Amino acid sequence: xxxxxxxxxxxxxxxxxxxxxxxxxxxxxxxxxxxxxxxxxxxxxxxxxxxxxxxxxxxxxxxxxxxxxxxxxxxxxxxxxxxxxxxxxxxxxxxxxxxxxxxxxxxxxxxxxxxxxxxxxxxxxxxxxxxxxxxxxxxxxxxxxxxxxxxxxxxxxxxxxxxxxxxxxxxxxxxxxxxxxxxxxxxxxxxxxxxxxxxxxxxxxxxxxxxxxxxxxxxxxxxxxxxxxxxxxxxxxxxxxxxxxxxxxxxxxxxxxxxxxxxxxxxxxxxxxxxxxxxxxxxxxxxxxxxxxxxxxxxxxxxxxxxxxxxxxxxxxxxxxxxxxxxxxxxxxxxxxxxxxxxxxxxxxxxxxxxxxxxxxxxxx
Length: 365
Known about the structure:
By secondary structure, the chain is α/β, with parallel strands linked by helices. It has helices at residues 17-31, 41-45, 49-59, 69-78, 95-100, 110-123, 144-150, 154-158, 177-192, 337-343, 348-353, and strands spanning 11-16, 35-36, 38-39, 63-66, 83-86, 104-107, 129-132, 161-165, 197-199, 215-216, 239-251, 256-257, 263-264, 269-274, 291-294, 297-302, 310-313, 327-331, 360-364.
């Protein structure tokens, strides 16, 4: 399906792989780390692991992070020679599956470390893994005292630990003292694990010198999200979402639109219906707050966002843009993923990772 062909029922999602690669290059330069990886969890933030990972590999990315085993298997198929870390550790008894696919678990508990070390001993091959130490998130990972206590323990070598990492809590918040505390704690940990590479910086952390280490691991910013809220977005947009207009109708003052008649026309209005809804990952919470661009004009959502349909007030849009099949832009043309997230009472991360599977997908490279 090409970008110039008519939009079929549902939306068209265009993914710009050249922008993805450019974003990785830019983040690599900003981070000033010896290596920059790529986080490709959640199907590469909705852009598709099968296409995004090889594009990044061609650009020079050699290390990737996913969240689950299933994602690791998809990534291994896409980039056979890459180093692939699985952020959420591994469930009990699943070490053979990780080893068969040459995946590297991120170990965050003594139990996980012991199980991986035992698998290494049983196979007679020390396969690598990362060690996750929690410096403030209180979500996954060893505590800092536990991490320091394990430094020098033979089990670290037995588990093949080749990367020490932690996760920033609020790197996108300027001058947050918690970030400085995390960076200080991580510096202490790095000193306790000489010779092992370290990784702290996420997308926002790439812009903070205090968070730099051996390996940067950006995620959201790769896909066009703004890593520096409050500043101009330095990233190129990667995702564009369009839906074709199904019908246009005129309504009189006092008429309602959508389920439960939540919207009432304040006067004569022109409405357009799009074949896209919350089943496609466009949040129902966008009701009354969302927008789409039609003929260069931002047009507000009216009525409830429903499962498969969205209604727009297109009264101000040019008449020649209101023909059946004409595009309405839901992400793009000034509506970036952060704006779309705010309009839905959420964040751009949720918008990207929730993009549905019914879209026509077009890749630009």
